[in-house]
Write a structure and sequence with these properties.
The structure is a single chain. Helices cover about 60% and strands about 0% of the residues. Helix 3 runs antiparallel to helix 4. The protein is elongated.
């Protein structure tokens, strides 16, 4: 399409100009920062944060404090039981989909905490 042609032309002009290439490279190098996060041993701060951040949503789902497949939240944030068709032998009705979803949420939360603390220099 015409828009794609214009974009290709702009990119070609931008990369062929030595002055533009130099300033773009300088800006890119100035913005790059590398954070190294190592999970050293089981008691390290990173591991403790990840364990806690993953455990909290799982516990909340297991004891009915977070919505699950069999207890979804309504518009008023009231959780009411309903049959989702997913069968579980867990007494609280926690399904495999719930464990995966709550575990993924916990991991995302933990990664955010670790990288945020790394970014501000607290770890």
């Amino acid at each position: 399409s015409r828009r794609g042609y214009k974009l290709d032309t702009m990119l070609a002009l931008r990369t062929t100009s030595p002055q533009l290439t130099k300033t773009a490279a300088t800006r890119t190098q100035a913005r790059r920062t590398h954070h190294v996060v190592r999970a050293e041993y089981l008691g390290s701060a990173t591991n403790q944060i990840m364990i806690l951040a993953t455990t909290l949503p799982l516990v909340a789902g297991r004891f009915g404090l977070a919505p699950t497949a069999n207890r979804p939240a309504s518009a008023g944030l009231k959780m009411s039981p309903r049959s989702s068709g997913l069968v579980s032998n867990d007494p609280a009705g926690l399904t495999a989909a719930d464990v995966l979803a709550l575990g993924a949420f916990g991991h995302a939360m933990g990664v955010g905490i670790v990288l945020g603390m790394k970014g501000i220099g607290a770890m």
